[in-house]
Amino acid sequence: MPIMTNSLGLHFVALISILSAATVKGAEYDYYKYHPMEEIRNWMAQMVMDYPDVVTILDYGQTYEKRTISLLKIGLESEKRKKAIWMDCGIHAREWIAPAFCQYFVKQILQSYKTDTKIDTMMRNMDFYVTPVLNIDGYMYSWKDNTTRLWRKNRSPGPSGDCYGTDLNRNFDANWGTIGISFNCSSDIYCGSQPVSEPEAQAVTYFVGSRKDDILCFLTIHSYGQLLLVPYGHPNFTAPNYNELVNTAMHHCGHFL
Ligand SMILES: [Zn+2]
């Protein structure tokens, strides 16, 4: 395995290693190319048919353009109340490798839980909530043509109606509107008219908020930067378990060295 080194060398190595560990099984669905939304929806339904004991689809919201937002709930039935891990992909429309990663992740855990005791234990004790594409309107728009390929935001109109899209990643009610944002609707980092103004952000906030005692981990997958970012994206506020988060991140990057 080639080891590329630069200031972010750990992350480069991690990515290459995941790819080289891939198998060619599941040939009917190509996990090495990007898929339009309709194919991803069909793939979700296929996962439920192929693994009915562990996979269900939960619809938990609607996009601005009234498309249903769905996730795959993955886990073995249990008498006890289970903890959960949240993972969303495709909050930024143009970052196509994020939805591709979510699909690949789902395939890997479903193919291996019967033979891998570690994953079997996780599936018994926890559920995974995986949203392959959160920003569906934006994702579909980024597939439209070459002029829309780099669309990032959702598709709701701005206050004056002459610009479109809120950066959903900057719309949550966490230090909203304070840093790394724009109040100009034409900007790629427009944070919306108020916290959680967007239906996609509302869906996540409600789903996660109503289960917050059970959710152990919240992962949101992006591309471009080979970076692991920890909460809260603000210089003055860090998570109470900041050290644990950084240590965990370093530990997992270290696995691939
Ligand atoms: Zn992003």
From TrEMBL:
It comes from the Eukaryota. Residues 1-26 form the signal peptide. It holds the Pfam family Peptidase_M14. Its cofactor is Zn(2+). GO terms for molecular function: metallocarboxypeptidase activity; zinc ion binding. Keywords: Carboxypeptidase, Hydrolase, Metal-binding, Metalloprotease, Protease, Signal, Zinc. One of its GO terms (cellular component) is extracellular space. Gene3D superfamilies: Zn peptidases. One of its GO terms (biological process) is proteolysis. Residues 33-257 form the Peptidase M14 domain. Belongs to the peptidase M14 family. This is Carboxypeptidase O. It comes from Oryzias sinensis.
